[in-house]
Design a protein that fits this description.
The complex is a heterodimer of chains A (about 400) and B (about 260). Chain A is of the alpha/beta class. Chain A is about 45% helix and about 10% strand. Chain A has helices spanning about 10-20, 35-40, 50-55, 60-65, 80, 90-105, 110-120, 160-165, 170-185, 200-205, 210-225, 235-245, 255-260, 265-270, 285-290, 295-305, 335-340, 345-355, 365-375, 390-395, and strands spanning about 155-160, 190, 225-230, 255, 280, 310, 360, 385-390. Chain A has a 4-stranded parallel beta sheet. Chain A has a 4-stranded parallel beta sheet with strand order 6-5-7-8, sandwiched between helices. The radius of gyration of chain B is 22 Å and the shape is globular. The mean pLDDT of chain B is about 95. Classes of the chains: A alpha/beta (about 400), B alpha/beta (about 260).
């Protein structure tokens, strides 16, 4: 049996984490194993959260830091949600372990490195030019206020997000949302090329320095405009803006688009003129649901669309299965398949199709490409399509791209 | 082992390049800059050599583009010394001038090994690495895909790539200049917190080597974007039909027998 040199750094790390706000509970871990048992990828982890704490306590943190297992967490918050001791495993333990590993020179999987490097250089993980942030809005049929060009007070400052701004499949949704906001008579604006990622995935990837530099930039930027509400398309941004930025002094009136629209449901109903006649199932994205406790707003929006029959997947609401895209997971698919044999998005699309639904509705920008890809992988393309709730609303409001 | 690495700044191609009003040069001021990719590999190779058997890594860069950021990143990765050469122009130096500037800074360091990226995407007069070797009067091998220490001091073992996926192994006497295509491993990821710390603590040594630009050299008559061609032909139909058509096209052009 291999001998492992005992180290003190595990205990030091735990003590350090215990000193952070809401961190003390980590000392109370009773080794029940609820975390690993709840984790949809726990089977692929050599070290589950429970085991990481055990190793750290017993002077064997090094073996954890060295393990590729630490790059399997996709930030679904199941472990945090179910931990009977209330330990913030997702927000506290995982990033700290990953940060420590990187500080000691252990390399994250290559694809994730690239995403982090891109974010450092360009403010988005896709490695796109910051100057092209508003290309999604080219020839859009509704007016746009780019506050970075012409500052003026608005009712809603919309943080578009990275995939919604750059990724062609998402740009369609982004254009739809611009039309919906306009149709609702909202005075809205964007900050154009001044926008950078909020950094939730970078934070949970353990890139503390990168996240801190994004926080500094974003707090300063978001303070320099006048608005009543900050609306995000990306629930990961909601997570960090609502739960983490305040710890750094950045308090913003932030909301995800689903709750923003659900608050205007009566007004919206009058605009939903075209029936959709479809069985729809909804995928709870982890940040909006388990992390931020919002389960009904997206469902209310879907139910409001005439003709939509909403059915539930076997695992839904707080038990919803993650798409595998958070905490850097968007750039860890290869690594996770190597260690775990499959992607959560592939598992989830099968579950969605099993409901008999013809449409899988989502409310997170990562999920369109993840689930559309999964549908192809699983040969379900003919049985189910993936649509953002925004797209379904826009279709019922007759606001979709006229050329489509 | 005293290793010197040259780090160059090149225009970042994620942005559209722009031409100067005179149509003879890039609008260098409009470009944003990144570290030259093969120079990044040269740095990685230097750090791997140092880690394998000691020594110092000194990084030399011209004060151009975002060199400060690249030097800080190099320090965060493990470079020991950072030298920034004075450069007041909007455009990078001509090749021979660059070679003279780097050589003037490198020579007094008495290096065992000088590692330079084998190419940079803004080079139009040839490549820097062999020119620098000639200016320093040192032997040169380029298109290197890995450098290792040998049992015998004063030598290194290198892998050089040739066309047709042929790899050759050389043993080289030091001092020497190597044109690095790729390090033994991909350039390492260094956490941003380390770069931020290096930006606060790392010492950059500023030098002005005062080398005059060369009097002669090729002049660019015109610089322009490639003209738009006729466009591509899209093949439609079933996979079999498309494959058959491709085979036909290749045969027509004598590429298939």
């Amino acid at each position: 049996m291999a001998t492992v040199q005992a180290d003190d750094k595990g205990l030091e790390l735990l003590k350090q984490l215990a000193q952070s706000p809401e961190g003390e509970s980590i000392l109370g871990c009773m080794q029940c194993g609820m975390c690993g048992g709840s984790c949809p990828l726990g089977y692929a982890m050599r070290f589950t959260p429970r085991n990481i704490i055990l190793q750290a306590r017993s002077g064997r943190l090094q073996s954890v830091l060295e393990s590729p297992s630490i790059w399997v967490c996709v930030g679904c918050y199941n472990c945090s949600y179910r931990c009977p001791r209330g330990i913030e495993l997702t927000d506290l333990l995982w990033p700290a372990i990953r940060d420590r590993a990187m500080q000691e020179g252990y390399q994250p999987p290559a694809e994730l490195q690239k995403a982090l490097q891109n974010t450092y250089m360009y403010g988005n993980a896709l490695g796109k030019s910051p100057k092209k942030r508003t290309e999604w809005a080219k020839d859009l049929d509704v007016p746009i206020r780019d506050l970075s060009q012409n500052p003026e007070p608005v009712e809603v400052l919309w943080l578009v997000g990275d995939y919604p701004a750059y990724y062609p499949r998402n740009q369609v949704v982004t254009r739809d949302f611009a039309r919906i906001l306009t149709a609702l008579g909202v005075r809205w604006g964007i900050i154009g090329n001044k926008e950078k990622t909020i950094g939730d995935c970078e934070r949970l990837s353990g890139e503390e320095g990168l996240f801190e530099s994004l926080i500094e930039y974003n707090i300063q930027t978001l303070r320099s405009y006048e608005y009543e509400k900050l609306i995000v398309t990306d629930p990961h941004s909601l997570n960090s803006l609502q739960n983490i930025y305040p710890k750094y002094g950045g308090r913003f009136p932030v909301e995800h688009y689903a709750t923003f629209l659900a608050d205007r449901l009566e007004e919206l109903k009058g605009l939903l003129v075209r029936p959709l006649e479809a069985v729809v199932t909804y995928h709870d994205n982890c940040c909006l649901s388990r992390r931020c406790g919002c389960y009904e707003a997206p469902r209310d929006l879907l139910r409001a669309i005439p003709g939509v029959q909403l059915v539930e997947m076997r695992r839904n609401r707080e038990h919803g299965l993650c798409c595998g895209g958070g905490a850097g997971g968007m750039w860890l698919d290869g690594h996770i398949v190597e260690l775990g044999g499959h992607r959560l998005s592939d598992e989830r699309i099968v579950e969605a199709a099993a409901t008999g639904a013809k449409i899988l509705a989502v409310s997170c920008p990562f999920e369109l490409s993840r689930f559309e890809d999964a549908a192809k992988v699983k040969g379900l393309e003919d049985r189910i399509v993936v649509r953002d709730i925004i797209e379904l609303l826009a279709e019922s409001m007759d606001l979709r791209e006229k050329t489509r | 082992m005293n290793i010197i690495v040259v780090l160059r700044q090149v225009p970042d191609l994620i942005e559209q390049l722009e031409l100067d009003a005179d149509g003879k040069s890039l609008d260098w001021g409009a470009a944003s800059y990144i570290i030259n990719e093969s120079d990044d590999h040269a740095l990685e190779q230097a750090l791997l050599l140092k880690e394998a058997g000691g020594g110092t890594v000194t990084v030399v860069g011209l004060d151009f583009g975002n060199i400060e950021g690249s030097l800080h990143t190099a320090a965060a990765k493990g470079a020991d010394r950072l030298i920034r050469l004075a450069w007041g122009e909007d455009a990078p130096p001509r090749l021979s001038h660059a070679a003279a500037l780097y050589a003037a800074a490198i020579k007094p360091q008495n290096p065992d090994l000088v590692l330079v990226g084998v190419q940079a995407h803004d080079e139009w007069e040839g490549v820097l690495a062999p020119w620098l070797a000639a200016t320093l009067g040192l032997p040169y091998v380029g298109v290197i895909r890995g450098v290792w220490r040998t049992e015998t001091p004063g030598k290194v073992r290198v892998h050089k790539e040739f066309p047709g996926a042929v790899m050759a192994e050389f043993t080289m006497k030091l001092p020497a200049v190597l044109g690095i295509l790729g390090a033994e491993k991909p350039p390492r990821y260094v956490p941003v917190s380390r770069i931020r710390a290096a930006a606060k603590s790392a010492q950059i040594v500023d030098q002005n080597v005062g080398v005059q630009p060369p009097a002669v050299g090729a002049q660019i008559e015109q610089l322009y974007f490639p003209a738009k061609g006729e466009g591509a032909t899209m093949l439609t139909g079933s996979a079999e039909e498309v494959a058959a058509r491709i085979a036909e096209l290749l045969a027509e052009r004598g590429l298939l027998r």
